[in-house]
Write a structure and sequence with these properties.
mainly alpha, 5 helices, 79% helix, DUF4345 domain-containing protein
Length: 127
């Protein structure tokens, strides 16, 4: 598995773990964000969706799907931007940005790995 695929697999595992938390212990996860307890099913639906999306990341990493790797970068940046928008415009708790920062960091890691891969084998990404 190449470095870029590894970044995608690692992010996929993070998404699956987050999804499992939302599915199995949603109020623990919400409490960490400073969000009131949820009694509705929507948060578990979101957790289920995250598990499936995380699986896609892991499967695409195993298949070395470079088109997917590239597509995740603007998607993860958009997730961060949308989270910031929700905090600024919709009164979401600021801690939501922490989840977005994980996406932003993952996007940067994948982008850096793709750049290094394009420059040739054994290349270390520039700082």
């Amino acid at each position: 598995m190449g470095h870029t695929a590894f970044t995608i697999k690692a992010f996929g595992i993070y998404v699956v773990v987050t999804g499992l938390g939302l599915l199995l212990a949603p109020n623990l996860m919400l409490g960490m964000l400073g969000v009131p307890e949820a009694r509705e099913v929507w948060i578990r639906v979101l957790g289920s969706l995250a598990i499936v999306v995380g699986y896609y990341y892991i499967a695409c990493a195993a298949g070395n799907a470079h088109a997917f790797f590239r597509a995740t970068i603007p998607g993860r940046i958009a997730f961060f931007a949308l989270g910031v928008g929700l905090v600024l415009l919709a009164g979401a708790p600021w801690t939501l940005i922490l989840f977005g920062l994980a996406d932003l960091a993952g996007a940067a890691w994948t982008w850096s790995a793709l750049r290094a891969e394009a420059q040739g084998p054994g290349t270390v990404p520039a700082s």
